Amino acid sequence: MYLFCVILIVLVSVLMCMIVLIQNSKGGGLAAGFSSSNQIMGVRKTTDFLEKATWTLAALMVVISIVAAYSLPQKSAGTTLKLDNPAETSAPAPEGE
């Protein structure tokens, strides 16, 4: 489940990068190229779609991140790494004694 969530997060982030690069904050970008009169979607509708897609992907990324955090593989008590305190360990006995 965790691996599936990580793969989804990567896919969503790549899609979000593409959508953000397409839009321009001043109404330009690739959305401005769709201004011909024979297009089904006008410039304003394309801009609205890109903005809604950005917000949807951002919300989806947050939700998937929360799910991934709860599905993180848990370590059992027997596999924890125990670090020895160097002050408590004894030095090796010198050779020849």
In brief, what are we looking at here?
The chain has 97 residues and is mainly alpha-helical. It has a domain at 1-9 and 42-72. The protein is 51% helix and 0% strand.
Structural class: mainly alpha
- Our measurement of the CA-to-CA distance between the termini, rounded to an integer number of angstroms, reads 58 Å
Helix content: 40-55%
Work out the oligomeric state of the chains in this entry.
single chain
Number of helices: 2
Average pLDDT, all residues: 75
Spans of 5+ residues with little confidence (pLDDT < 50)?
Answer: none
Structural Rg: 27 Å
Instruction: Report the sheet with the most strands, covering strand number, pairing sense and barrel closure.
Output: none
What is the 3D form?
elongated
In total, the number of strands is 0
Strand content: under 5%
Secondary-structure element sequence? Answer: HH
Report on this structure.
This protein has 97 residues and is mainly alpha-helical. It has a domain at 1-9 and 42-72. The chain is 51% helix and 0% strand. It has helices spanning 2-22, 43-70. Helix 1 (2-22) runs antiparallel to helix 2 (43-70). The longest helix is centred in the middle third of the chain and has 28 residues, at 43-70.
